[in-house]
Amino acid sequence: MNRRVEHRPWLLLSLPLACLLLGGCGQSVAPEILALREQLIVPQEPQGAITIEQARQQVEDDPNVTLTVKVGNRNFPEWSAENQATFYVSEGFPGSDYNVGPDHDPSTCPFCKWKWKEEDSLAVVHVVDESGEVLPYSAETVLDVAPGSTLTIQGDGSVDESGFLNVRLTGLFVHP
Is-contact 67 93, C-beta < 8 A? Predict the structure, then answer.
């Protein structure tokens, strides 16, 4: 059986238009945000990560920190401010007593009750511009990360008046 194949150039030309129309109303990312992501996100995991607890103890002598963390914190459902590139992270360092699963509640665990220190399990990360000001976008928009994502972050650390580690982000690796 011999079939004749017809060429329909209009079909090929309509494909890109269909893709655009079927793509929906997704939000586009501003060029300055894409440039910032490119500047902050590193292609390989930085070496030398330490725990939040260790970083709190060392930042007075050496503010440069590298941490493996999880985005979000069980005590703060709103992990990122809407108009500020500041977000909470929890300990994610493998083997740390503070790297607990989502179903573990330290307030009901006999071991954690006597050992747990909130300030050793949580840090606050700030994405800042060249002048040191926190960017006026949500961290979710700037970094395209979600709660529970595991990251290795680099930055300049300091301990605030409440004893919590604050990190001015200089580099970020998103774990697959």
Answer: yes
Domain 29-174, CATH number (from 1.10.1760, 2.40.50, 2.30.170, 2.60.40): 2.40.50
Q: What is the DSSP letter of 5?
A: P
Of 137, 120, 156, the residue nearest 80 (C-alpha): 137
CB 80 within 8 A of CB 86: yes
Q: What is the pTM of this model?
A: 0.75
- In degrees and rounded to multiples of 5, residue 18 shows phi and psi of -65, -40
| Residues near 148 by beta carbon (within 8 Å), at least 6 away in sequence | 70, 71, 72, 102
* Torsion angles phi and psi, residue 85, rounded to 5: -85, 60
Question: Any idea which residue has 């005590």 for tokens?
Answer: 75
Measure the CA–CA gap between 173 and 145, rounded to whole angstroms. 11
Residue-wise pLDDT tens digits, 86-124: 999 988 766 655 655 666 666 677 666 556 567 677 899
